[in-house]
Task: structure prediction
Amino acid sequence: MTVLRTVERFLRRHDMPRTKFGRLAARDPRLVDDMRNGREPRKAMRERIEHFMNRYEGERTHADAR
Result:
């Protein structure tokens, strides 16, 4: 699965605006728009994005368990 597809699924699952995702994941509110227009993030950025999504979902799961 591509990074963009993974991000798109994350956005839908968490009802998160694309600009908020970009700011939180990479301090770049245009990140998702740029990827939709063909930007391919480098390995370090892909790892940063994946780390953000994993951490966010982990925190949400932990908060839901309370």
The CA atoms of residues 15 and 44 lie 25 Å apart. The two ends are 32 Å apart (CA to CA). The chain has one domain: 3-65.
